[in-house]
Model the fold of this input.
Amino acid sequence: MKSRKLVLVIGISITVLIFLSTSVLGATKSEVNISLIPEFSKENCTVILVGKDASIDGSTMATHTADCGICDFSWRHVPAADHEAGAMRKIYSIPQEETWAPEVGLKWEMIYKEKYTGVEIPQVPHTYAYHHAMFGYINENQVCIGESTIDCRSEMESPNAPMNLTELTLIVMERAKTAREAIQIMGDLATEYGYGLDVGEMLAVHDPEEIWIFEIMPVGPLWTPDSGKLGAIWCAQRVPDDHVSMCPNESRIGEIDLENQDYFMASENVISYAVEHDYYNPDSGEPFNWKKAYSPNFWSAHSSGGMNARLWRFYNIVAPSLNLDPDTLNTELPFSVKPENKLSVLDVMAILRDHYEGTEFDLTTGVAAGPFGCPTRCRPLTWTYEGEKYANQRPIGSLHCEYATVTQARSWLPDPIGGICWVSLGVTETAAFVPFYAGITELPASYLIGDHWVFNKDAARWASDYVDMLTQVKYSYAIQDVKEAIFKWEGGAVSRTPAIDTKAYDLYKEDPAKAQEFLTKYCIDNANQMIDAWWDLGNSLLVKYSHGFVYEEDRECDQVGYPDEWKKLIIEIDGKQPIYEKK
Done:
């Protein structure tokens, strides 16, 4: 009897959810009841995509800011391997946010120990080498990935299906030689074995020639392998070669043209599932729209209080003449745009540090920025006061970034040299990117360890956190010191890249193994030197900005005081009165 009641309750709940979600989807903008719209993730990862003809050097590029705040930030290198005929590959349930205490075991040790799903898939004869952290990022064939959670309708979630996003990215790192092949592999595995654990997700998938947005959705908790139905829904759209695009935790694919196979790929159920669940009515006369069917969003930069302003901001940085209105619903903003100036890797890194400077959402201004213009905001981003809900702006450069990547794929070089995964640890504005070439065979030891709850000076990430925390004390002053260090180390690494490429290529022609050895040593040495410099930078900030002073190198000590705007606030809010000598 209890089980029957449970089934009935679940059925009624799913029906109500379907009714609410379809009611919202069918409403016009003016009719939308905001209380019925799902509060989609707005604090997670940002992906920027750059086509090869939109970049200065002809590379394709993608980013991932792992904006989590509690996730594992360690990195791994997985070597290539050969496998016997008939071998099977185990599938693991890999949670994006779960971590373990260091004394128990490192994350990836614990996953392989505790998270086996019981599902195995046929292994391929040979798997490729790659680098990964929370996801697979680059393999030896220059297949690259960046990730952003986009959410889905709540009734579509399928927490128990074996395939999850992290595992899919690791498998394609092992198996794919091109971006299209990676998309097809992920789509086929997800539909056959069932995609779950994660909600709606987006991946930037690129190789030296093409860059794609791949989006995938689960199909609900009742799906089973015996159902005879596909275990996932997915769709992919290619970014034009001379365009750039972005995903800020929102579905980006709109109307699709499956006959145009040069620009679209999708699962067989891409439209039929929406029809079956009343997310789309083919008799309406309206064309099918992927994002409106599976991940509806009614926010704009303005209506979200700047929490959903990243897409608007990015397009206004790269194509300001479009003069996009911040009141435009994000779903109505273009899939991609042609940048007015081609982007370099340094341009992309700079965008990842943006806080809406110079716009109405500028996080370095206002009371919440404090006296020294600090863009840091308290968590959570949304808060309530006297019954009204408010939001802090969510910038591209996020306080809770675990690490950021900029992957580059370059067609004019051999794959081990052409692919670079640039990695910065912690908050992007106070950390420097270092290069990890696709062909290196080892990563720095300090990048393999670390935990949010346990300080460890052997872990590279803590050097970044040390600098970031001290920068916030007197931000407008300290950030200048940090920018100088970033220019030296990050800018230096970028400027050296052509010379490193040339040296590696000369060695590659002689013996590919020699090129790999050279690049591995260079990447490890460069990263270690940068981390040492960041510890020194943190020490310098601690001394320079302690006790409310600015201690200069010439043994002078400046009392900088508050800026006039902040003095005015103190007088107005605290009721300060002028002092005078009574006569």
Notes: Residues 413-558 form one domain. The mean pLDDT is 91. The CA atoms of residues 367 and 401 lie 24 Å apart.
